[in-house]
Amino acid sequence: xxxxxxxxxxxxxxxxxxxxxVAASLLLIVLWIVLAxxxxxxxxxxxxxxxxxxxxxxxxxxxxxxxxxxxxxVENLNETAAYISNYFLKSGAHVSVQAVPSxxxxxxxxxxxxxxxxxxxxxxxxxxxxxxxxxAADDNASGVAVLLELATLxxxxxxxxxxxxxxxxxxxxxxxxxxxxGSAVHAKSLEGREVDYLGVIVLEMVxxxxxxxxxQSYPMPMLYMMYPHRGNFLALVSRWDQGDWIKNVxxxxxxxxxxxxxxxxAPDRIPGIDFSDHRNYWPQNIPALMVTDTAFYRNSNYHSKxxxxxxxxxxxxxxxxxxxxxxxxxxxxx
Length: 334
Known about the structure:
The structure is a single chain. The protein is of the alpha/beta class. The protein has one domain: Zn peptidases (Aminopeptidase), CATH 3.40.630.10. Helices cover about 35% and strands about 15% of the residues. The chain contains 7 helices and 8 strands; from the N terminus they run H-H-H-E-E-E-H-E-H-E-E-H-E-E-H. A hairpin with a 2-residue loop joins strand 1 and strand 2 (about 105-115). The protein is globular and about 80 Å long. The termini are far apart. The mean pLDDT is about 95.
């Protein structure tokens, strides 16, 4: 009998390498499914429209006329709060304010409610204060501008969804991650609540976009294999255990406009996952996420004097507004 020839060492190494590549690819696919929760769901395009120039007007008001909006300039925060309150009232919302004390300073959350006797309710929020003395056009005049135009859209409806639009104060340092954040005060006020809440959508920096190659960065290199390298999309971001809420909001937002929507659920030890007001609703067992342009992972003007109104894309901000508007309507009907 002729002995069977043995495989060469090179062949064995090639096969071993092939197995490793297949295993790594499968692992990457699993991670992508778990982290990004991809969906083929499509919605019909929205018939709603938002004027980009109106969004620009709101951003100019906050980033230019009410500057600085940090915690040491409460008079400017109060001017901003009054502007928001008046706009909510003009839209037809029921407006209330919530005091947020901080040592010798005091500011307020502004709440514009629609269909306020109906439950379960949704919350859409955005902080209106700024870091240091910076213009803070993206962070977070952009989020508040979208919040104000959401009020306009809901006010035009005969039967708007049960939603509370909340402009938060004291999100930025030195209050961030502490009990005196405006959103922390609001979330704490819901403890032992009689009203049921479906969830919270926080608008955190939604105005900066770029079509340049590799204009988008990520906290982990492997995410480049799962997400676009161009910063021309909107992201839904939250903690690992918020997967169902992320999936539901993403499903409701997809294809409502031309702006792509991606999502990330991840441990909150990854920098950026809990960097906004949504974090304060988790202890109350209310699902919460942030809608964002990914902040410092895309916008190099973050927390600087360069974060000015001229740097923002108001046409895409209008698309953000429409997408969130349609999502709130869809979620309220489920």
